Amino acid sequence: MDLEKKPSIAARLCIESHAELLQHVAGLSDETMRQDSKLPGWSIGHVLTHLARNADAHARRLDGALAGEDVPKYANGPEQRRQEIEDGAKNSASEILTDLESSIWRLNGILEQSEQAQWPNADFMGGGNYGVGGCPAHRLREVQMHLVDLGLGYTPSSWPDEYAAWDLENLLASVPERLASKQARTELVAWLAGRAPLHEDFTLEPWG
Fold first, then answer.
1. Residue 49: which of 146, 137, 145, 126 has the closest Cα?
2. What is the DSSP string of 27-90?
3. Residue 204: its pLDDT value, please?
4. 37 within a domain of the structure (yes/no)
5. Does the residue 205 lie in any domain?
6. Rounded to two decimals, what is the model's pTM?
7. What's the pLDDT at 65?
8. What is the dihedral sign for C-alpha 21, 22, 26, 32?
9. What CATH number is associated with residue 75?
10. What's the number of domains the chain is made of?
11. Residues of the chain where predicted confidence (pLDDT) is lower than 70
12. Which residues are within 8 A (CB) of 7 and not within 5 positions of it... i.e. 6 or more apart?
C-alpha cells in the first residue's frame, strides 16, 4: 500500500503514533533528556525537539494547502531546521515535552481538517520531493523511526504493519546507492538470487 497516495490511512496511523510517542516519553527527566540517543551527535532532547519542529513543518505545509498556498516545510531551509533543533534541545525536560505535545496537537488538528476537506491541493510540492498529500506518510515515518532512535525501549517490532510495508519498498529502492563497493553489490545480488550467503562483514551504508 502506497501511504503517500492514501493520506487518510496515513493520517490515522500518524495520530495513533503521536499518542504512542507522548505516552512513551511522558515524565522524562532533565538527566534523561541529555543522554545520547542512537543518532550520532544527538541527545534524546535533540530527537524530541526535531519531532516537534517536524510536526510544525508538516502542519505548515498542510495548513497552506487548505488555504490554497504552496508553502515549504521550513521558510529558511535546512539552516532553520538545524538551528531550531539545537536551540530547543537546550531546554529543560518539561519545556521540551510541553513543546512536543503542543506541536503534535496542532498537527493532529490540521490532519483532521485536511481529512474533512478531502486533502485539497495534494500535489503542492513546497519546494520538496513529495506532494503535500504525502505529508501524513512522511510524518508517520519520522515518528516511528525516531521512537526507535530515542533508545528508550521502543523497537522496530512495534512498527505498524502498514507503515513497514510502505517503507520497505522505499528502503529497498535506496539500496543501490548505499552499497559502497562493486564487491558489496555483487554479493547482495548473489544473495538475493539465492546463489550465495551474505558474508559476516557485509555492510550497507546507513539510510537517511
1. 146
2. T--HHHHHSB-SSTT-BHHHHHHHHHHHHHHHHHHHHHHHTT----S-TTHHHHHHHHHHHHTT
3. 87
4. yes
5. no
6. 0.93
7. 98
8. positive
9. 1.20.120.450
10. 1
11. none
12. 114, 115, 119, 122, 133, 134, 135, 136, 137
